Amino acid sequence: MKHIKYKKIFESKDDIEEVIETIKDICLELQDEGYRIEIIPNKKADGSMTQWGHRMYISLEPDKDEYLGREIEFNISDIMEVINRLIDYLTINIEDFTRDCISVLSSKGGWIQLRRSDDNIVEVEGVRIFF
Known about the structure:
It is a single chain. A hairpin with a 5-residue loop joins β1 (35-43) and β2. The chain is of the alpha+beta class and 131 residues long. Strands 1, 2, 3, 4, 5 and 6 form a six-stranded antiparallel sheet that branches. The two termini are 29 Å apart. It has one domain. It is built from five helices and six strands; from the N terminus they run ααββαβαββαβ.
């Protein structure tokens, strides 16, 4: 028995714009709590798009006077409910999206895939999602 797939292959700019708007809606509560949400095109040096057309960053909005451009650490569990909603949405709407497309910036340095960091990383400086 074949299963119906709901995954989208973006045929127009409107498709991806709809996904981006939905992602922003999912993240509204994080913005209200002081997190910065950035969604940017993921381009190669020559300007062409990569396999993952966009990337998203979640970080705490620093107090400019206090942190002087450094990222602020936060507990990943504080935002996991939103991350799980993003995973659910992106898994349904983005072809080939998996939890492996999500990584966290460890305060010890370096990006680590979320699935590999669940038990080891608590304090992070950011979350990156490719879609």
